[in-house]
Amino acid sequence: MKDILRIILLTLILTLILGRIIIPILRNSHIGQNIREEGPKSHYEKAGTPTMGGIIFLISTLVMTLIFVPFSMKTFILLLATFGFGAIGFVDDFRKLVLKRSLGLTAKQKIVLQVGLSFVIALLCFIFQNDTITKLWIPFTHTRINISIFGIPLMMFIMIGTSNAVNLTDGLDGLSSSVSIPVFISFIILATSVEDKLFASIMLAGLLGFLFYNSNPASVFMGDTGSMAIGGAVVALALNMEMALFLVILGGIYVAEAGSVILQVGSYKLRNKKRIFLMTPIHHHFELKGYKEPKIVTGFTIVSVILSLITLLAAI
Protein backbone atom coordinates (compact mmCIF):
# COMPACT_ATOMS: atom_id res chain seq x y z
CA MET A 1 0.00 0.00 0.00
CA LYS A 2 2.84 2.39 0.81
CA ASP A 3 4.39 1.77 -2.63
CA ILE A 4 1.06 2.45 -4.34
CA LEU A 5 0.60 5.72 -2.46
CA ARG A 6 4.16 6.79 -3.35
CA ILE A 7 3.57 6.02 -7.05
CA ILE A 8 0.25 7.92 -7.02
CA LEU A 9 1.96 10.94 -5.45
CA LEU A 10 4.86 10.91 -7.92
CA THR A 11 2.55 10.50 -10.92
CA LEU A 12 0.33 13.31 -9.69
CA ILE A 13 3.30 15.67 -9.27
CA LEU A 14 4.73 14.72 -12.69
CA THR A 15 1.36 15.31 -14.38
CA LEU A 16 0.99 18.74 -12.75
CA ILE A 17 4.50 19.70 -13.89
CA LEU A 18 3.87 18.46 -17.44
CA GLY A 19 0.65 20.47 -17.56
CA ARG A 20 2.55 23.68 -16.81
CA ILE A 21 4.93 22.90 -19.68
CA ILE A 22 2.63 21.45 -22.35
CA ILE A 23 -0.44 23.70 -22.12
CA PRO A 24 1.48 26.87 -23.12
CA ILE A 25 3.02 24.95 -26.03
CA LEU A 26 -0.44 23.89 -27.24
CA ARG A 27 -1.74 27.44 -26.79
CA ASN A 28 1.18 29.03 -28.66
CA SER A 29 0.79 26.47 -31.44
CA HIS A 30 -2.87 27.52 -31.79
CA ILE A 31 -4.07 23.95 -31.29
CA GLY A 32 -7.49 25.04 -30.08
CA GLN A 33 -10.92 23.50 -29.71
CA ASN A 34 -13.50 23.79 -32.50
CA ILE A 35 -17.07 24.30 -31.26
CA ARG A 36 -20.10 22.63 -32.87
CA GLU A 37 -22.47 25.28 -34.24
CA GLU A 38 -25.51 23.24 -33.17
CA GLY A 39 -24.17 22.87 -29.63
CA PRO A 40 -25.11 24.83 -26.50
CA LYS A 41 -24.41 28.54 -26.91
CA SER A 42 -22.43 28.56 -23.65
CA HIS A 43 -19.72 26.54 -25.40
CA TYR A 44 -18.85 29.33 -27.83
CA GLU A 45 -16.63 30.99 -25.24
CA LYS A 46 -14.51 27.79 -25.19
CA ALA A 47 -13.42 28.23 -28.79
CA GLY A 48 -9.63 28.20 -29.02
CA THR A 49 -9.06 26.46 -25.67
CA PRO A 50 -5.97 24.25 -26.10
CA THR A 51 -6.81 20.63 -26.80
CA MET A 52 -4.93 17.36 -27.39
CA GLY A 53 -4.10 17.75 -23.70
CA GLY A 54 -4.42 14.02 -23.19
CA ILE A 55 -0.73 13.82 -24.00
CA ILE A 56 -0.11 15.35 -20.55
CA PHE A 57 -1.34 12.37 -18.54
CA LEU A 58 -0.28 9.89 -21.22
CA ILE A 59 3.36 10.98 -20.95
CA SER A 60 3.29 10.68 -17.16
CA THR A 61 1.53 7.29 -17.45
CA LEU A 62 4.15 5.95 -19.85
CA VAL A 63 7.09 7.20 -17.79
CA MET A 64 5.76 5.88 -14.49
CA THR A 65 4.69 2.55 -15.99
CA LEU A 66 8.11 1.94 -17.51
CA ILE A 67 9.77 2.77 -14.19
CA PHE A 68 7.51 1.07 -11.66
CA VAL A 69 5.34 -1.61 -13.31
CA PRO A 70 7.00 -5.03 -13.80
CA PHE A 71 7.02 -5.95 -17.47
CA SER A 72 4.83 -8.90 -18.42
CA MET A 73 2.20 -9.75 -21.01
CA LYS A 74 -0.38 -8.04 -18.77
CA THR A 75 1.70 -4.86 -18.81
CA PHE A 76 2.15 -5.07 -22.59
CA ILE A 77 -1.61 -5.43 -23.10
CA LEU A 78 -2.24 -2.41 -20.87
CA LEU A 79 0.26 -0.27 -22.77
CA LEU A 80 -0.83 -1.48 -26.20
CA ALA A 81 -4.51 -0.78 -25.56
CA THR A 82 -3.98 2.57 -23.84
CA PHE A 83 -1.47 4.01 -26.26
CA GLY A 84 -2.85 2.21 -29.32
CA PHE A 85 -6.31 3.73 -28.95
CA GLY A 86 -4.68 6.97 -27.79
CA ALA A 87 -2.62 7.02 -31.01
CA ILE A 88 -5.78 6.68 -33.11
CA GLY A 89 -7.26 9.61 -31.22
CA PHE A 90 -4.02 11.57 -31.65
CA VAL A 91 -4.05 11.09 -35.42
CA ASP A 92 -7.68 12.22 -35.52
CA ASP A 93 -6.89 15.31 -33.40
CA PHE A 94 -3.75 16.08 -35.42
CA ARG A 95 -5.60 16.01 -38.73
CA LYS A 96 -8.40 18.22 -37.39
CA LEU A 97 -6.44 20.69 -35.30
CA VAL A 98 -2.97 20.88 -36.81
CA LEU A 99 -3.58 20.04 -40.46
CA LYS A 100 -6.94 21.85 -40.26
CA ARG A 101 -8.91 19.09 -41.94
CA SER A 102 -12.39 19.49 -40.53
CA LEU A 103 -13.29 15.78 -40.45
CA GLY A 104 -10.03 14.40 -39.08
CA LEU A 105 -10.08 10.66 -39.69
CA THR A 106 -13.12 9.47 -41.60
CA ALA A 107 -15.48 7.09 -39.83
CA LYS A 108 -14.25 4.29 -42.09
CA GLN A 109 -10.57 5.00 -41.38
CA LYS A 110 -11.20 5.16 -37.64
CA ILE A 111 -13.16 1.90 -37.47
CA VAL A 112 -10.56 0.08 -39.60
CA LEU A 113 -7.80 1.17 -37.22
CA GLN A 114 -9.86 0.24 -34.17
CA VAL A 115 -10.79 -3.17 -35.54
CA GLY A 116 -7.15 -3.89 -36.42
CA LEU A 117 -5.86 -2.84 -33.00
CA SER A 118 -8.57 -4.67 -31.06
CA PHE A 119 -7.96 -7.84 -33.08
CA VAL A 120 -4.25 -7.78 -32.24
CA ILE A 121 -5.01 -7.25 -28.53
CA ALA A 122 -7.66 -9.99 -28.46
CA LEU A 123 -5.36 -12.41 -30.30
CA LEU A 124 -2.48 -11.75 -27.88
CA CYS A 125 -4.81 -12.34 -24.94
CA PHE A 126 -6.08 -15.55 -26.55
CA ILE A 127 -2.55 -16.85 -27.06
CA PHE A 128 -0.88 -15.72 -23.83
CA GLN A 129 -3.78 -15.11 -21.38
CA ASN A 130 -6.37 -17.57 -22.62
CA ASP A 131 -8.81 -17.29 -19.73
CA THR A 132 -9.19 -13.52 -20.19
CA ILE A 133 -10.70 -14.08 -23.62
CA THR A 134 -12.35 -17.49 -23.47
CA LYS A 135 -14.08 -17.27 -20.08
CA LEU A 136 -16.77 -14.74 -19.18
CA TRP A 137 -17.20 -13.88 -15.51
CA ILE A 138 -20.89 -13.24 -14.84
CA PRO A 139 -21.46 -10.30 -12.45
CA PHE A 140 -22.94 -11.12 -9.00
CA THR A 141 -21.87 -14.76 -9.36
CA HIS A 142 -18.70 -16.82 -9.27
CA THR A 143 -19.69 -18.38 -12.59
CA ARG A 144 -17.38 -18.23 -15.58
CA ILE A 145 -18.81 -19.32 -18.94
CA ASN A 146 -16.40 -20.84 -21.47
CA ILE A 147 -17.01 -19.25 -24.89
CA SER A 148 -13.77 -20.50 -26.49
CA ILE A 149 -12.61 -18.69 -29.64
CA PHE A 150 -15.86 -16.69 -29.82
CA GLY A 151 -14.32 -14.55 -27.11
CA ILE A 152 -12.14 -12.85 -29.71
CA PRO A 153 -14.95 -11.07 -31.64
CA LEU A 154 -16.85 -10.39 -28.42
CA MET A 155 -13.85 -8.73 -26.77
CA MET A 156 -13.12 -6.80 -29.98
CA PHE A 157 -16.67 -5.42 -29.85
CA ILE A 158 -16.26 -4.47 -26.18
CA MET A 159 -12.91 -2.77 -26.84
CA ILE A 160 -14.19 -0.70 -29.75
CA GLY A 161 -17.44 0.13 -27.97
CA THR A 162 -15.71 1.21 -24.76
CA SER A 163 -13.12 3.44 -26.42
CA ASN A 164 -15.78 5.21 -28.49
CA ALA A 165 -18.16 5.50 -25.53
CA VAL A 166 -15.50 7.20 -23.40
CA ASN A 167 -14.78 9.48 -26.35
CA LEU A 168 -18.46 10.53 -26.43
CA THR A 169 -18.35 11.21 -22.69
CA ASP A 170 -15.66 13.86 -23.17
CA GLY A 171 -17.95 16.80 -23.88
CA LEU A 172 -17.93 18.95 -20.73
CA ASP A 173 -15.12 20.42 -18.65
CA GLY A 174 -13.74 17.65 -16.46
CA LEU A 175 -16.53 15.15 -17.24
CA SER A 176 -14.55 12.27 -18.72
CA SER A 177 -11.81 12.60 -16.09
CA SER A 178 -14.24 12.86 -13.17
CA VAL A 179 -16.42 9.87 -14.07
CA SER A 180 -13.35 7.74 -14.85
CA ILE A 181 -11.64 8.31 -11.51
CA PRO A 182 -14.06 6.04 -9.56
CA VAL A 183 -13.63 3.43 -12.30
CA PHE A 184 -9.86 3.27 -11.78
CA ILE A 185 -10.25 3.28 -8.00
CA SER A 186 -12.48 0.20 -8.39
CA PHE A 187 -9.81 -1.51 -10.49
CA ILE A 188 -7.18 -0.74 -7.82
CA ILE A 189 -9.37 -2.36 -5.16
CA LEU A 190 -10.27 -5.42 -7.23
CA ALA A 191 -6.94 -6.09 -8.99
CA THR A 192 -5.12 -9.21 -7.88
CA SER A 193 -1.99 -8.76 -10.00
CA VAL A 194 0.73 -6.22 -9.26
CA GLU A 195 0.71 -4.99 -12.87
CA ASP A 196 -3.00 -4.17 -12.94
CA LYS A 197 -3.01 -2.57 -9.50
CA LEU A 198 -0.02 -0.32 -10.24
CA PHE A 199 -1.20 0.66 -13.71
CA ALA A 200 -4.67 1.56 -12.43
CA SER A 201 -3.01 3.65 -9.71
CA ILE A 202 -0.90 5.48 -12.27
CA MET A 203 -3.93 6.20 -14.49
CA LEU A 204 -5.85 7.43 -11.44
CA ALA A 205 -3.09 9.86 -10.48
CA GLY A 206 -2.65 11.02 -14.07
CA LEU A 207 -6.34 11.89 -14.33
CA LEU A 208 -6.33 13.61 -10.94
CA GLY A 209 -3.43 15.79 -12.06
CA PHE A 210 -5.04 16.48 -15.43
CA LEU A 211 -8.34 17.37 -13.77
CA PHE A 212 -6.61 20.32 -12.10
CA TYR A 213 -6.31 21.88 -15.57
CA ASN A 214 -9.43 20.33 -17.12
CA SER A 215 -12.06 21.22 -14.50
CA ASN A 216 -14.46 24.06 -15.17
CA PRO A 217 -13.43 26.49 -16.56
CA ALA A 218 -11.00 24.23 -18.45
CA SER A 219 -7.53 25.46 -19.34
CA VAL A 220 -7.10 22.48 -21.66
CA PHE A 221 -9.18 19.69 -23.18
CA MET A 222 -7.94 16.10 -23.50
CA GLY A 223 -9.23 15.65 -27.04
CA ASP A 224 -9.67 12.27 -28.70
CA THR A 225 -6.04 11.61 -27.76
CA GLY A 226 -6.93 11.38 -24.08
CA SER A 227 -10.50 10.09 -24.16
CA MET A 228 -9.77 7.14 -26.44
CA ALA A 229 -6.68 6.30 -24.38
CA ILE A 230 -8.80 6.22 -21.22
CA GLY A 231 -11.18 3.85 -22.99
CA GLY A 232 -8.27 1.63 -23.97
CA ALA A 233 -6.93 1.58 -20.41
CA VAL A 234 -10.34 0.77 -18.92
CA VAL A 235 -11.03 -2.11 -21.28
CA ALA A 236 -7.48 -3.51 -20.99
CA LEU A 237 -7.76 -3.63 -17.19
CA ALA A 238 -11.15 -5.31 -17.50
CA LEU A 239 -9.68 -7.87 -19.91
CA ASN A 240 -6.69 -8.61 -17.68
CA MET A 241 -8.99 -9.06 -14.71
CA GLU A 242 -11.57 -11.15 -16.64
CA MET A 243 -14.17 -8.45 -15.91
CA ALA A 244 -15.27 -7.44 -19.41
CA LEU A 245 -18.98 -7.91 -18.66
CA PHE A 246 -18.65 -5.78 -15.51
CA LEU A 247 -18.07 -2.76 -17.76
CA VAL A 248 -21.81 -2.58 -18.36
CA ILE A 249 -22.11 -1.63 -14.67
CA LEU A 250 -18.76 -0.01 -13.91
CA GLY A 251 -18.80 1.97 -17.15
CA GLY A 252 -22.51 2.75 -16.89
CA ILE A 253 -21.96 6.44 -17.64
CA TYR A 254 -20.09 5.54 -20.82
CA VAL A 255 -22.93 3.16 -21.76
CA ALA A 256 -25.54 5.87 -21.16
CA GLU A 257 -23.63 8.40 -23.27
CA ALA A 258 -23.20 6.01 -26.20
CA GLY A 259 -26.71 4.62 -25.79
CA SER A 260 -28.25 8.09 -25.97
CA VAL A 261 -26.55 8.69 -29.32
CA ILE A 262 -27.72 5.32 -30.69
CA LEU A 263 -31.30 5.93 -29.53
CA GLN A 264 -31.30 9.46 -30.94
CA VAL A 265 -30.05 8.36 -34.36
CA GLY A 266 -32.48 5.43 -34.44
CA SER A 267 -35.42 7.61 -33.46
CA TYR A 268 -34.51 10.26 -36.04
CA LYS A 269 -34.32 7.71 -38.85
CA LEU A 270 -37.24 5.47 -37.88
CA ARG A 271 -39.71 8.00 -36.44
CA ASN A 272 -39.78 10.64 -39.19
CA LYS A 273 -37.00 12.82 -37.73
CA LYS A 274 -38.42 12.79 -34.20
CA ARG A 275 -35.84 13.12 -31.43
CA ILE A 276 -35.83 11.61 -27.95
CA PHE A 277 -33.31 14.04 -26.44
CA LEU A 278 -32.74 17.73 -27.05
CA MET A 279 -29.18 16.86 -28.04
CA THR A 280 -26.79 13.96 -27.64
CA PRO A 281 -24.60 12.70 -26.05
CA ILE A 282 -26.97 12.94 -23.12
CA HIS A 283 -24.87 15.42 -21.09
CA HIS A 284 -25.78 18.05 -23.73
CA HIS A 285 -29.47 17.25 -23.19
CA PHE A 286 -29.13 18.28 -19.56
CA GLU A 287 -27.25 21.42 -20.60
CA LEU A 288 -30.09 22.46 -22.89
CA LYS A 289 -32.48 21.72 -20.02
CA GLY A 290 -30.75 24.53 -18.14
CA TYR A 291 -28.32 22.65 -15.87
CA LYS A 292 -24.86 24.21 -15.50
CA GLU A 293 -21.76 22.24 -16.45
CA PRO A 294 -20.39 21.82 -12.88
CA LYS A 295 -23.74 20.43 -11.66
CA ILE A 296 -23.94 17.95 -14.55
CA VAL A 297 -20.35 16.80 -13.96
CA THR A 298 -20.99 16.43 -10.24
CA GLY A 299 -24.19 14.48 -10.86
CA PHE A 300 -22.58 12.14 -13.37
CA THR A 301 -19.61 11.61 -11.03
CA ILE A 302 -21.92 10.68 -8.15
CA VAL A 303 -23.63 8.15 -10.43
CA SER A 304 -20.21 6.77 -11.39
CA VAL A 305 -19.35 6.35 -7.70
CA ILE A 306 -22.63 4.50 -7.10
CA LEU A 307 -22.00 2.24 -10.10
CA SER A 308 -18.47 1.57 -8.85
CA LEU A 309 -19.82 0.51 -5.46
CA ILE A 310 -22.33 -1.79 -7.16
CA THR A 311 -19.48 -3.27 -9.20
CA LEU A 312 -17.49 -3.97 -6.04
CA LEU A 313 -20.51 -5.78 -4.62
CA ALA A 314 -20.96 -7.70 -7.88
CA ALA A 315 -17.34 -8.87 -7.83
CA ILE A 316 -17.22 -10.10 -4.23
From TrEMBL:
It is a multi-pass membrane protein. Keywords: Cell cycle, Cell division, Cell membrane, Cell shape, Cell wall biogenesis/degradation, Magnesium, Membrane, Metal-binding, Peptidoglycan synthesis, Transferase, Transmembrane, Transmembrane helix. It is found in: Cell membrane; Membrane. GO terms for cellular component: plasma membrane. Its cofactor is Mg(2+). This is Phospho-N-acetylmuramoyl-pentapeptide-transferase. The chain crosses the membrane at residues 6-26, 47-69, 75-91, 111-129, 141-160, 172-192, 198-214, 245-265, 296-315. Belongs to the glycosyltransferase 4 family. MraY subfamily. InterPro entries: Glycosyl_transferase_4, PNAcMuramoyl-5peptid_Trfase, PNAcMuramoyl-5peptid_Trfase_CS. One of its GO terms (biological process) is cell division. Mg(2+) binds at N167, D224. Pathway: Cell wall biogenesis; peptidoglycan biosynthesis. Its EC number is 2.7.8.13. Catalyzes the initial step of the lipid cycle reactions in the biosynthesis of the cell wall peptidoglycan: transfers peptidoglycan precursor phospho-MurNAc-pentapeptide from UDP-MurNAc-pentapeptide onto the lipid carrier undecaprenyl phosphate, yielding undecaprenyl-pyrophosphoryl-MurNAc-pentapeptide, known as lipid I. It comes from Anaerococcus porci. It catalyses: UDP-N-acetyl-alpha-D-muramoyl-L-alanyl-gamma-D-glutamyl-meso-2,6-diaminopimeloyl-D-alanyl-D-alanine + di-trans,octa-cis-undecaprenyl phosphate = di-trans,octa-cis-undecaprenyl diphospho-N-acetyl-alpha-D-muramoyl-L-alanyl-D-glutamyl-meso-2,6-diaminopimeloyl-D-alanyl-D-alanine + UMP. The gene is mraY. It is an enzyme of class 2 (transferase). One of its GO terms (molecular function) is metal ion binding. Pfam families: Glycos_transf_4, MraY_sig1.
